[in-house]
């Protein structure tokens, strides 16, 4: 395959076909670096040398009613994750300020466990936190709070919300193997509702749950249709007590890099990032995620696991000659 020529066609506006994407994600190890170089061409055209950094706070943890196979916060699984109610707005704001100061994060997301934020008290606290972040930081404001109706989204928008994070998680054809307490279509509807309300959408998935390479491509094309502004790629970091951990088989760093590169070809102008699991799946090859087509990553800790120290991430970005925006 002529990866460079295909990259030029994508840059010129040609939409990749499903078969082409499937051929790309099946690139053999010996041709992977040719593939990554072509994906980097696309990223350079649309994103230049710019990198965006996201940070999150696990603002409400544990006791989730949903049974997602990978999630340590599900009440259906026996894990050692901490459980606590929604943080006070001042505590959320403190986390946001620390992220901006200590890790150069440019986007901050308030994440809550549970299918949805339902009570008026929780909605009020999140709204107050958004107002504080809007007034006292320069960061983009995001929430990851499960299923939201249009009224709630509009209310949070008035409080400063700019973006909703809501992953599809996996391909529709594989979704029943991941979660049975809600449907794939419910997730799609939340994304559509947010877009109708004028909110940016960040939506991606979690990989290495047992899905096929074809299903990874299936998810990429579903995301292309939904047209989010940002696509986070997460690689399973197995947590003891979850069904996904019991079935876990390690993924190779080259397979992860091919996944990123394929998504860059399918979604050439989107912000694409490698988030959860990058330390455990890429190990010493982490810098190559930016060569493979990523232009975003998450700094600091994840929801229930520790992340790499922010100073190491910032050094990695500087060493690659990239600029944080």
TrEMBL record:
Cofactor needs: [2Fe-2S] cluster; [4Fe-4S] cluster
One of the record's GO molecular function terms: iron ion binding
Record domain Radical SAM core: where: 46-278
Pathway: Cofactor biosynthesis; biotin biosynthesis; biotin from 7,8-diaminononanoate: step 2/2
Record field: catalytic activity: (4R,5S)-dethiobiotin + (sulfur carrier)-SH + 2 reduced [2Fe-2S]-[ferredoxin] + 2 S-adenosyl-L-methionine = (sulfur carrier)-H + biotin + 2 5'-deoxyadenosine + 2 L-methionine + 2 oxidized [2Fe-2S]-[ferredoxin]
Tagged with keyword Amino-acid biosynthesis: no
Subunit-level organization: Homodimer.
Function statement: Catalyzes the conversion of dethiobiotin (DTB) to biotin by the insertion of a sulfur atom into dethiobiotin via a radical-based mechanism.
Name of this chain's protein: Biotin synthase
């Amino acid at each position: 395959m002529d990866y460079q020529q295909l990259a030029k066609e994508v840059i010129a506006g040609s939409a990749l076909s499903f078969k082409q994407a499937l051929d790309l994600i099946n690139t053999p190890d010996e041709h992977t670096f040719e593939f990554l170089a072509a994906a980097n061409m696309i990223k350079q055209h649309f994103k230049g040398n710019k990198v965006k950094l996201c940070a999150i706070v696990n603002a409400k943890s544990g006791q989730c009613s949903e049974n997602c196979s990978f999630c340590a916060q599900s009440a259906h699984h026996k894990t050692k994750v901490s459980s606590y109610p929604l943080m006070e707005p001042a505590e959320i704001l403190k986390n946001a300020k620390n992220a901006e100061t200590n890790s150069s994060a440019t986007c901050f997301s308030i994440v809550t466990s549970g299918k949805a934020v339902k009570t008026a008290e929780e909605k009020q606290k999140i709204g107050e936190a958004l107002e504080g972040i809007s007034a006292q930081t320069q960061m983009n404001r995001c929430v990851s709070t499960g299923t939201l109706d249009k009224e709630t989204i509009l209310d949070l928008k008035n409080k400063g919300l700019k973006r909703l994070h809501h992953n599809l998680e996996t391909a529709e054809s594989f979704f029943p193997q991941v979660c049975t307490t809600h449907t794939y279509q419910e997730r799609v509807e939340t994304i559509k509702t947010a877009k109708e309300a004028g909110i940016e959408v960040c939506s991606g998935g979690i990989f290495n749950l047992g899905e096929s390479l074809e299903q990874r491509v299936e998810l990429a094309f579903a995301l292309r249709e939904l047209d989010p502004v940002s696509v986070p790629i997460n690689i399973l970091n197995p947590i003891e007590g979850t069904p996904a951990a019991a079935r876990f088989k390690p993924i190779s760093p080259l397979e992860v890099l091919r996944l990123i590169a394929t998504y860059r070809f399918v979604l050439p102008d989107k912000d694409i990032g490698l988030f959860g699991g990058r330390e455990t799946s890429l190990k010493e090859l982490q810098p190559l995620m930016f060569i493979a087509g990523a232009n975003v990553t998450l700094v600091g800790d994840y929801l229930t696991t520790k992340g790499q120290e922010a100073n190491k991430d910032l050094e990695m970005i500087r060493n690659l000659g990239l600029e944080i925006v």
